[in-house]
Amino acid sequence: MTSSPDLRLPAEWEPQDAVLIAWPHEGTDWAARLAEVETTYTALAAAVVRFQPLVVIVADEGVRTDAERALRGAGMSLDRVRFVELPYDDTWLRDSGPITLVSAEGFQLTDFRFTGWGGKFGAEQDDALVAGLVAAGVFGPAAHERVDWALEGGGIESDGGTTVLTTWRCLHQRHPEQSREAMDAILRESLHARRVLWLDHGYLEGDDTDAHIDTLARFAPGERIVFQACDDPSDPHHAELARMAAELTVLRTPDGKPYRLSPLPWAQPVMDEGRRLAASYANYLVVNGAVLVPAYGDAADDEAARIIGVAYPGREVVQVPCRPLIWQNGSLHCITMQLPAGLLG
User: Fold this and answer.
1) What is the pTM of this model?
2) N or C: which end of the chain has fewer CB within 10 A?
3) How many CA atoms lie within 13 A of 38 on its CB side?
4) Contact call for residues 217 and 248 (beta carbons, < 8 A)
C-alpha cells in the first residue's frame, strides 16, 4: 500500500482487531514489584479477551511461560491470545507501539522516533519495536512509515476525523528548538489531520511524560471531551487543572460548537516513599463493546467509572485495578495500544 490522501487517525472507539501489550519481566523496571504488577496485567488481559483478541509481546520463551502461567492461573483460556517474541526495554506500548492510520485502501503503521520520553530512559529496543512487529508478520499488508521525529501515542488524541488534541508542555520538551507552528504542521502532515488543538495547561505530579494528553483529556463520541479535574483547592494541582478546564471550554468542534465536557473526579494523593504518584482516571482504554477504567482503591473509583460510562453509551464499564502501575508513573491506557479492525495478518 502506498500513502493514501484519505488516511486518518481513527478514534479509539472505532472497531478494533485486538489490543497490544508487552508482558512485564525481571529485565524491565517492574522487577522490584513484578508479582504485584502482574496482577494488573492479568486483570487487564482477562478484561480485554472478553471483548476481543489480545496480542502479547514477550521477551523470550521464559517470559511467555510466565505470562501463560499467570493467565491460566486466573482461569483464562488462551484462545484469543497471540504471543510475539521481541526484545523491549519496558512495557509502555502506548508510546512505543504503532500509531495506525486507516484509509479505504488499507493501513499505514506510522512509526515515530521513540526517545524514552525525551531521553529520560534507554529506549533503543523500544524504538525498534514497530519494525520488529512488522518483520514478525503480525500485521497484514500495511505500509510501514518511519517518521524521524519524536512523538508518543500517549501524546496525541484523535476524534477520528479532522482533529488532533495535544499538549504544548510535552511537545515543547521533545522539540525545544521548534515553534508551535512548525510542530503543528508536522502533526497535521504526519497524522493526516486538518487541525491541531493545543492545551497549554495541565500536568500530574509524578508524570514522566511531560503532560501526555491521555493523562489529562480524551476525545469521546458525540463531540465530547472527558478530562481529569481537581476539586480540592488545597491540592497543588488545583490551579493548573482549573486553567486546563478553562482552556477546554473555549475549544470548538470543526463545526464551531463548544465540546460537551465531562470532568472526572480527583483521587486522593497516592504516595510512595514521599513521592506523589500520578493517578489519573482519564487514562482509560476503549475496546469493542466496553471501556476499561483504572481503579486505584479510592472512594472516587466508582464515580469515575460512572462518568466514563455515560460518555461511552452502550458499552460495558469494566474497572481494572491499576494502583501497581502508577508506581512507574503510568496507568491503564499507557500500557496498551489498540489495533484497528482489519490490521492483523
Assistant:
1) 0.97
2) C
3) 20
4) yes
